[in-house]
Amino acid sequence: MELKKIRAIVEFPSPRNVDEVRSFMGIVGYYKSFIRNFSWISYPITSLQRKGNKFEWTEECAVSFEQFKHFLTISLVLEIVDLDKEFMVCKNACKQGISGVLMQEEQVVSYA
């Protein structure tokens, strides 16, 4: 991702009304399949869009907003793979859970 685009996301101001929430969530929604627990993280912000709710930017909304900005600016968002090259699966299983990464040419292309 270009530095200019990362800077725009980092400097994105907190939404002040429902229209600005919709605008931000439109940007974030494009990447929702790459953000684990998207619905859970977005709930405080998306609940501001409900009819009859008073718009109140809470600390919970601010935390969700910052989490999304973080996810959109880390480098592990998308990686184009070459299906003609070998893949390597690296996994980790421990008492806390199971995780793993899919790699190609020493680059992470997906993680779980």
Structure in words:
The chain has 112 residues and is of the alpha+beta class. It is built from 4 helices and 3 strands; from the N terminus they run H-H-H-H-E-E-E. Strands 1-2-3 form a 3-stranded antiparallel sheet, with no helix packed on it. A hairpin with a 2-residue loop joins strand 1 (88-94) and strand 2 (97-104). Helix 3 crosses helix 4. The model has no long low-confidence stretch (mean pLDDT 83).
**Euclidean distance between termini CA atoms:** 21 Å
* Strand segment tally: 3
Integer tally of domains: 2
Helix coverage percent of residues? 25-40%
Q: Reading side by side through the largest sheet, how are the strands ordered?
A: 1-2-3
What is the CATH architecture descriptor of the largest domain? 2-Layer Sandwich
Percent strand equals: 15-25%
Class by helix and strand content? alpha+beta
> What's the SSE pattern?
HHHHEEE
Number of helices: 4
Descriptive tags:
alpha+beta, Alpha-Beta Plaits, 112 residues, 39% helix, three-stranded antiparallel beta sheet, 3 strands, 4 helices, 2 domains, elongated
Provide a short characterization of the protein structure.
The protein is α+β, with helices and mostly antiparallel strands. It contains 4 helices and 3 strands, in the order ααααβββ. It folds into 2 domains: 3-73, Reverse transcriptase/Diguanylate cyclase domain (Alpha-Beta Plaits, 2-Layer Sandwich); 79-112, no CATH class.
